[in-house]
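can u do me a favor
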């Protein structure tokens, strides 16, 4: 999917980074009650590998926790090493695997992160 077209996915939380008015990266999430799903996180190809993905995901965690989101979920391809590294460092845990989920035959890992511990809110 094209970078710009991702912005049109149905979502209700968008965290974008636009240093000079131009979007360099964004996180799209869908919230439901006190849970949310990261639909995608994307950094412009020319801006990758400079820590922007990490900043964006941390910002999204902060905003979502402020909105009362306790748990966050996402799916990532086993083959997507940059994204897996990002989520690993951001404290996500693997809670499931969908076999041959993607068209290229790769499995999807289902990851979860707790933003607000039970009893804390
Ligand atoms: C995944 C993505 C958002 C990461 O954004 P980024 O700004 O490049 O990430 P960062 O620079 O913050 O790096 C985060 C971690 O990922 C690692 N990483 C980044 N690019 C990598 C690569 N090509 N291979 C392996 N690890 C990589 C970094 O080394 C860093 O870990 P480190 O601090 O231990 O070095 C970006 O690669 C992207 O937009 N990919 C295409 C869209 C996508 O696949 N989104 C995920 C859908 S589930």
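np, heres the sequence
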């Amino acid at each position: 999917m094209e970078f710009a077209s991702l912005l049109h996915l149905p979502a209700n939380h968008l965290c974008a980074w636009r240093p000079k008015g131009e979007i360099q990266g964004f996180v799209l999430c869908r919230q439901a009650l006190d849970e949310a799903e990261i639909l995608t996180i994307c950094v412009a190809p020319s801006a990758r590998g400079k820590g922007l993905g990490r900043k964006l995901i941390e910002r999204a965690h902060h905003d979502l926790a402020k909105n009362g989101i306790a748990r966050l979920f996402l799916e990532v391809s086993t083959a997507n090493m940059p994204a897996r590294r990002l989520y690993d460092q951001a404290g996500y845990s693997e809670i499931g695997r969908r076999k041959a989920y993607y068209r290229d035959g790769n499995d999807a890992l289902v990851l979860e992160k707790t933003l607000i511990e039970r009893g804390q809110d």
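Helices lie at 52-66, 81-89. hope that helps!!
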